[in-house]
Design a protein that fits this description.
It is a single chain. By secondary structure, the chain is an alpha/beta fold. The chain folds into two domains: about 1-55, Urease, subunit C, domain 1; about 60-235, Metal-dependent hydrolases (TIM Barrel). The chain is built from eight helices and nine strands. α5 (about 155-170) links the parallel β8 and β9. α3 runs parallel beside α4 (about 130-140).
Length: about 240
């Protein structure tokens, strides 16, 4: 059965805005957009829902999210000016979260996003299965990028072998709307050999790839000069790294 949704404005995005517009939907497909008069005349038997002086537009896309960290809102702001301190506090709190915590946090984030008009995600996480389940429960679309860490080049092959196993398990949870991707986390947490192996895995398995980059002055100092907090941290762990 066809349903019509009308409002003061319809914003198709790929075409000019339509004043006093309407959208006709049959099942899960949009079958018509246009002025209210035009759409109603095409589907005279359709049920009409009018939203008055509002706008109907495609769902918003959040291209970079961390749904599993939703519950940390307000927890990290006090150390935000110090990126290294922010990372330490986040990592410590994240390690204390249970699998149930991660699922609840991701689901809360997905629900909040849906209420704000977001319908599609590019989500980066270290527990992709939970984020996939959260998006599916709320009826969202998205790609969930499972993160891989490993600054020690000597462990690159071992880390990527583990990543392959994780992706195989995660793929058992994907659906028509939600798919897995992979994320070599960041330049300061993934060695060059591991980044190359993950890039090859992305190509071979046709997996979307995402990486955090250009996030802070500390990262810039590390990448350009091999100096700063990240360089000192790797040195303390006995990991050799040279700026490119």
């Amino acid at each position: 059965m066809t349903s019509i949704y009308s409002a003061g404005w319809v914003l198709p995005i790929i075409a000019p805005a339509i004043e006093d517009g309407a959208v006709a939907i049959n099942g899960s497909k949009i079958v018509a957009t246009g002025s209210r008069v035009e759409v109603v005349s095409r589907f005279p038997a359709a049920r009409i829902s009018d939203f008055g002086q509002a706008a109907i537009l495609p769902g918003l896309v959040n291209a970079h999210s961390h749904l599993e960290l939703t519950v940390m809102r307000g927890f990290l702001e006090s150390v935000e000016p110090d990126f290294a301190a922010w990372l330490r506090k986040l990592t410590t709190a994240r390690m204390a979260m249970t699998t149930e915590d991660l699922l609840v946090s991701a689901t809360c984030g997905a629900i909040e996003a849906a209420r704000a008009g977001v319908t599609c995600f590019g989500d980066s996480c270290s527990a992709a299965t939970h984020a996939i389940k959260a998006l599916q429960q709320v009826g969202m679309r998205g790609i969930v990028y499972h993160e891989s860490f490993g600054p020690d080049p000597n462990l690159a092959e071992e880390n990527v072998a583990k990543l392959r196993e994780q992706i195989a398990e995660i793929r058992g949870h994907e659906s028509d709307l939600v798919h897995p991707g992979i994320s070599p986390h960041a330049p300061y947490t993934v060695s060059a050999p591991q980044l190359e192996l993950i890039s090859r895995l992305s190509i071979d398995e046709k997996l979307p790839l995402m990486m955090h980059a250009a996030e802070s002055q500390a990262e810039k100092s590390f990448m350009l000069d091999g100096l700063g907090h990240f360089a000192e941290g790797l040195k303390a762990r006995g990991i050799e790294w040279q700026a490119p």
